[in-house]
Write a structure and sequence with these properties.
By secondary structure, the chain is of the alpha/beta class. It has 2 domains: 3-174 and 266-329, Rossmann fold, CATH 3.40.50; 180-240. 51% of the residues lie in helices and 12% in strands. It is globular and about 65 Å long.
Length: 331
């Protein structure tokens, strides 16, 4: 499918979404706020969607449309776009209210996913296998940095279709040193103020006889673990008096209740190693900044920076706001 056609339909899709009366939608306050946030940068979002689609669909794509997965689809803007392109669409998101919101968006626009799956990659895998669906493409924006277990994710996606081509985007760019420092400071504070107390409460409830000193130590050493993995970690400690070593850096942290990572900042080498374990290869490309700004000078600056990022790939990676990961079967 030609980029010109995809871009044309993107503009039409944006107009159809902008016509929706947000206050009239029967959705949660959380989804209403998220919807409003997306509307404020909708052209930027659709630029990213368009570039992701172009990376996957060949120019001469003809015939029966293959199934396309909108993974971690949130409010479903991408699903509406994909359907307007004439593709078969499977929407998947772990959030119940988002799954409800995309169904409402489908009614409002007349376009939307053929299937709505509520859950993780495991739920997507089970759903597709039970219906003999074989998705060929997958797009996930701002998701990979929040997934608790990347090996489990790509094991599920490989089992779903080992020949599936995928594009992920992430703003957790290790090469962008200034952005990485900012995210790391945020994670340290979030863990100290939010997640360490939650882990400590879990220890108090499950190990009431544990001395307070040990409890403090374990509340810190179990950073980045969900409650089930915390218990396994603590049980090893109680048997051996040795703290297992966590395979994360000194900043990354997650919600122990859900496993949702604040921001997992991985290097390209780490991504390659994880994907190679599941027989996938990855190509990294720099992203770009939003050029639609209120102040013309800021817009002009964004355009200049984007030109530099595109023209000079390696130095551009030091300032890129996000990256594309295009993933295909290796070999």
């Amino acid at each position: 499918m030609k980029k010109e056609m995809i871009t044309k339909i993107a503009k039409e899709t944006i107009l159809s979404i902008q016509k929706i009366e947000l206050s009239q939608l029967n959705i949660s306050d959380y989804d209403r706020d998220f919807f409003k946030c997306l509307l404020s940068t909708i052209h930027y979002c659709f630029d990213i969607y368009t570039d992701a689609i172009v990376r996957l669909l060949p120019d001469d794509d003809e015939g029966v449309p293959d199934y396309f997965v909108d993974f971690g689809g949130g409010e479903g803007f991408l699903s509406v776009f994909l359907k307007r392109l004439g593709l078969n669409v499977i929407y998947c998101d772990i959030c119940h209210s988002s799954a409800q919101a995309v169904a409402i968006l489908k009614k409002e626009t007349g376009y939307g996913p053929d299937y709505i799956v509520e859950g993780s990659s495991q739920a997507l895998r089970s759903f597709c296998q039970s219906r003999s669906l074989l998705p060929k493409y997958l797009i996930a924006t701002d998701l990979i940095e929040h997934v608790y277990d990347l090996n489990a994710l790509f094991a599920d996606l490989r089992a779903l279709n080992p020949d599936m081509s995928m594009v992920f985007t992430t703003g957790s760019v290790k090469s962008n040193i200034l952005k990485s420092k900012k995210m790391r400071r945020m994670m340290v504070e979030e863990d100290r103020l939010v997640y360490t107390p939650v882990r400590k409460q879990f220890l108090q409830e499950n190990y009431p006889d544990m001395p307070s000193g040990e409890m403090e130590k374990l509340a810190k050493s179990t950073r980045g673990l969900t409650f089930p993995d915390m218990k396994a970690h603590v049980d090893v400690y109680l048997k051996t008096n040795t703290l297992p070593v966590l395979d994360i850096d000194g900043y990354n942290t997650c919600d122990p209740q859900t496993g949702n990572w604040s921001e997992r900042i991985l290097s390209k080498k780490q991504y390659r190693e994880i994907l190679a374990n599941h027989h996938f290869q990855v190509c990294f490309e720099n992203g770009y900044y939003n050029v639609i700004r209120r102040h013309p000078a800021i817009s002009a600056l964004a355009k200049t920076v984007n030109f530099f990022i595109r023209r000079f790939r390696r130095p551009g990676s030091l300032i890129t706001p996000f990256i594309f990961l295009t993933i295909r079967r290796s070999g």
